[in-house]
Design goal:
By secondary structure, this protein is mainly alpha-helical. The chain has one domain. Helices cover 79% and strands 0% of the residues. The chain has 9 helices and no strands. Helix 2 runs antiparallel to helix 3. It is globular. The chain starts with a helix and ends with a helix.
Length: 228
Amino acid sequence: MNAAKSLTNGASPAERRAGWKRYKASMRYGLYVIFHPFDGFWDLVHEQRGSLPAAHTYLFLFLLTYVLRLMLTNFQFITAPIQYINVYEQCGSLLFPFLVLCVSNWALSTLFDGKGRFRDIYMAMCYALVPYILIQLPLILVSNMISFDEAAYYQVLGSVSVIWCVFLVFVGLMQVHDYTPGKTVIFLFFTVFGALVILFLILVFFSLLSDAIGFFVSLYREIAFRLY
């Protein structure tokens, strides 16, 4: 049964209960994945242990954690101009590159004989964010309880959350595409390069679009000025 469909208002009570049960199980499965990444990511995709609603939730919690970290962490450990923080801009600065990386990974998987679908890649990337959420959220509270002399503990735990996520991304994509570790390293390099190319093309497109709009606006003003 599709969990997303079961959670909709049009589903019967039994389907909704089954959907929520499936959703909660797939959320709990995120804890198994981070401690047993090789088996966890394999079962996540091939045994349908994960779900898109849970992946969306983890991505939302990751963005929420990042924003809360900027706004609530003690000023001794992070310097962010709170009065100038735009929540939507901060979320977009993470969400857009994240999605571009997923698209780049999916697009290049054909050249590298990858077996993962876009859905599988997206889910693996989202589940790989769980350590950041579990470590950084408590660190926000901890940062307001310790002194600057104890900053080493804060920095170490913060680094662990990021390194853990990177490791899970590596293992997750390796399991999704059924690659060897060496091939995964090469594939990730090309994924990052492909993401940079996509970002460059998007910037070029919007730059040309802006120039085109400016040209037609100037042309309209010139015609209006001569006629009226």
